[in-house]
Amino acid sequence: MAVIGFIGLGNMGFPMACRLKEAGHEIRCFDLNAGSMARALDAGLGPRASVEETVSGAEVVITMLPSGRHVLDVLAADTLPLAPGALVIDCSTIDVASCAIFHETLQKKGLATLDAPVSGGVSGAAAGTLTFMVGGTESAFARALELLRAMGKNIFHAGAAGAGQAAKICNNMLAGISMVAVSEALHLAKRLGLDPKRFHEIASTSSGQCWALTSYAPEPGLVASAPANRGYEGGFASELMLKDLRLAEQAAVASQSPALLGAAAASVYAMHCAAGRGRLDFSSIIKMLGA
Ligand code: NAD
Q1: CATH architecture of 166-289
Q2: pLDDT per residue over 66-88, tens digit each?
Q3: Which residues form the pocket of ligand 1, taking CB atoms under 6 Å from any ligand atom?
Q4: Any idea what DSSP says for residue 234?
Q5: What band does 291 get if pLDDT is binned at 50, 70 and 90?
């Protein structure tokens, strides 16, 4: 069993750290937020007073932080007492450029690194059913596998360093665009006098079929488990979808890739968040259309 330093005990990090503890690992952890530290203490996670104390002597360090800036602030400090040869896994969703700096800086110090962003949200983190998209060497991936399996159900080695973040932002760009498209189609169908349930049934077995329609429909009454049926509470917040669409936009510009619909979806989500709906699940985007 490993000694793990876990940094970032927010909505995702806390349940992920709990899964690792349940799997028998020793967790030392840190978060800037006093409430998160108190919750960690109650859960027997072993809170420490600083990042330095958390990583000192840990065989594996895991970060689950808001953005690339936070990850580099925490991990790139020259004086950080990481154990020689430790494995550092960043599970946050961050920009491609910061991810490259993360790998480069720590590898220069002789550490093994992985970018391992997740999909599956807070409920997936609590249930240990996350999907991990991992970038890094085969040997680092092999070292991490047992730990990732304690937190997730589908573990993919996407490729070399940075491939996990690339997979994550491409997937979420696709999900964001699809949700806007499904919302537009449902809205138009209603305006044309179609019964939404009947249209949903037809499109679900026709060429418009996609996950946003069949598993996560934005209109209440179509998919029982979808956030649309509980006032768009829980699920994946619109503000997080906006963050990921912005990361995809940045990556598209940097790699000179056309991403017209990705940019359009980002604008729609930006308006949605500016209208005060950032905390609602991203399927609430249908509200932008007045549905
Ligand atoms: P969160 O804001 O709930 O948690 C982030 C935590 O990091 C906070 O508790 C904050 O206090 C802590 N933190 C910030 N700076 C710190 C520092 N310097 N030292 C120690 N702690 C620090 O965010 P979250 O929802 O847990 O998301 C974490 C990451 O996972 C993000 O990159 C997000 O995009 C990604 N993600 C989130 C979801 C989701 O459904 N919430 C799903 C997939 C991926």
Answers
A1: Orthogonal Bundle (1.10)
A2: 999 999 999 988 889 999 999 99
A3: 7-13, 30-33, 36, 64-66, 70, 73-74, 92-93, 118, 121-122, 236, 240, 243
A4: S
A5: low
